[in-house]
Design brief:
The protein has about 180 residues and is an alpha+beta fold. It contains 1 helix and 12 strands; from the N terminus they run αββββββββββββ. The protein folds into 2 domains: about 55 residues, no CATH class; about 110 residues, no CATH class.
């Protein structure tokens, strides 16, 4: 069986053109931007692996977050026999953020229940706040009461056998001043 070169030449030309066009399509598709609105995406169908993070813009209201001043930490005025736990890197302290929220950090030990643990500056002492805190023997409370002395007590927690408080974690405690 013999194939005529005259009849096969147009078929070959069509095949070559089809191949060139086929190879060119993926490159053209990469340059075309597909825009899909958020309402067209079903929940939980796009993951972080599918999003190029560098293409994301800052959330409009979050632009202020980069302009907020860093927290300035001050050591707590601990009352004897209370003391800070964790050495110089984790001194129990407080800071006030730009919105007036007081943040506590660190841990204290050595005192007894219902005994003044520390005092706060007058401007930071709310009228009355009881904040749950983690203690060595369970959950306790910091009772912050502006009764003139700006004192903070650790209350409602079990004492250890020797009558002292082994440990009270202040990390994550926040309240409005």
């Amino acid at each position: 069986m013999r194939i005529s070169t005259v009849k096969s030449a147009p078929m070959l030309a069509v095949a070559v053109i089809g191949l060139v066009v086929g190879l060119a399509l993926p490159a053209a598709a990469r340059e075309t931007k597909l825009v899909i609105s958020g309402s067209q995406i079903k929940p939980n169908t796009v993951t972080g692996k599918q999003v190029k993070e560098s293409t994301l813009a800052t959330v409009p209201k979050a632009t202020l977050a980069s302009k907020l001043p860093a927290l300035v930490w001050h050591p707590l005025a601990l009352q004897d026999p209370w003391r800070s736990v964790g050495g110089t890197n984790f001194v129990a302290g407080y800071a006030v953020d730009a919105q007036g929220i007081v943040h506590l950090r660190g841990a204290i030990t050595g005192g007894e229940e219902n005994q003044v643990a520390f005092t706060l500056p007058a401007a930071l002492t709310p009228s009355l706040v009881e904040v749950p805190v983690e203690c060595a023997v369970g959950v306790g409370f910091l009772k912050i009461d502006d009764n003139g002395d700006h004192a903070v007590k650790v209350e409602s927690q079990e004492e250890t056998e020797n009558g002292g408080n082994q440990y009270t974690d202040l990390d994550g405690v926040t309240f409005a001043s």
